[in-house]
Design brief:
This protein is α/β, with parallel strands linked by helices and 213 residues long. It has one domain: Rossmann fold (3-Layer(aba) Sandwich), CATH 3.40.50. It has seven helices and eight strands; from the N terminus they run βααββαβαβαβααββ. An eight-stranded mixed β-sheet has the order 2-3-4-1-5-6-8-7, with helices on both faces.
Length: 213
Amino acid sequence: MAGRRQPIVAVLGHVDHGKTSLLDHIRSLGKDARASVMDREAGGITQHIGATEVPADILNALCAPLLGGKTFDSPGLLFIDTPGHHSFSTLRSRGGSLADIAILVVDVMEGTRPQTIESLRVLKEAKTPFVIAANKIDRIHGWHSEHGRSMAEAMGDQSKEAMGLFEQRYWELVGQFAEHGFNIERYDRVDDFTKDIALVPLSAREGEGIQDL
């Protein structure tokens, strides 16, 4: 067990699609569980320049309802930020290449954009596995969000109309990713993660669906 490192998770996405909001929420994890800033710095989340380290105990506490008794066997996860602006394409390429896994943030209302497509190219060339964070689900008309709730719970609490609008946006994304050679599927419907890219609907602003991700 000695010397084991955290898997590196690169967070990529088009500018204004919510990458910063997602990282801000990740940085806030564990604040309620820690009594003070000193405690957080000593035993909680360590923030580095462009990186955020989330230890396994916080991940296990956050995701316990979805893990079915399983726990993370790594020391935690190290999230690295990759700029979404087109001027930082070299940095984004390096980040995507060194990562063990990536999160590609996409605005569910806008779909794929230029930096989304560039990020897909980087991930494909580096053969980096990734999941899609379909962000801003709370902007769907009639969607009811609750802070910190799992998406598995949230989807069961929506009106038929709101779920219909979500499904419409979802299938638009399926078509857009198919144009670039990727098969995507809603995360709770994936049978084989080696064949399909999981898409997790979420609201980074509300912290809804983060544990599913």
